[in-house]
Write a structure and sequence with these properties.
Blueprint: H1 10-29, H2 32-36, H3 59-75, H4 80-90, H5 93-106, E1 120-129, E2 132-140, E3 149-157, E4 163-167
Antiparallel strand pairs: 1-2, 2-3, 3-4
Length: about 170
């Protein structure tokens, strides 16, 4: 169970909300396979419509959902199992394998490309081509007048809605 020192702290309330969202998402995952396995009509995206994944949300929103829940999970003292479950749900098996190799070599979290946890994040949609779409994830590492940022390029597979690449 998640215990917080100061429930009045805005960051603590935000963490509780995201943790509850992640828990609800993982609970709902059990009901998704039967619906996802049903045949679907081919999609023909409109020129002005956002590129959508098979999970129904625009692909960059899937990236935002993942990073929000993942950052909260790794921030929690006992969030290791949740972080692993989120990786399993949102990332392709190939990317999970690549991240394991990267993490062993760099002694850091491959999803965040860092040894610590950012204070905030922002996802911006990018281009799409050849069945993939790219998003830019900005991680905020410090606050104040001159915050420090790092940027990641995240590739999503439009066929299955999974994240298939993370790089700088």
């Amino acid at each position: 169970m998640l215990q917080l020192r100061n429930a009045q702290d805005p960051r603590s309330r935000h963490l509780i909300g995201r943790t509850l969202l992640a828990s609800a998402l993982l609970t709902a995952v059990a009901a998704v396979p039967a619906v996802a396995a049903a045949p679907q009509a081919p999609r023909t995206p409109a020129a002005a419509a956002p590129v959508r994944s098979d999970l129904g949300a625009p692909a960059y929103q899937q990236v935002a959902h993942f990073y929000g829940a993942y950052i909260d999970a790794v921030s929690a003292g006992d969030g290791g199992r949740l972080a692993t479950a989120l990786r399993t749900f949102y990332l392709t098996p190939r990317l999970r394998s690549e991240l394991n190799t990267w993490e062993q070599r760099n002694h850091a979290d491959g999803v965040l490309r860092a040894q610590n946890t950012p204070l905030a994040f922002r996802v911006t949609p990018g281009d799409s081509a050849a069945g993939h779409t790219w998003s830019t994830v900005r991680l905020t590492w410090s606050g104040g007048e001159h915050p420090t940022y790092s940027y990641l390029t995240v590739r999503s597979d439009l066929r299955n809605g999974k994240i298939s690449g993370i790089g700088r």
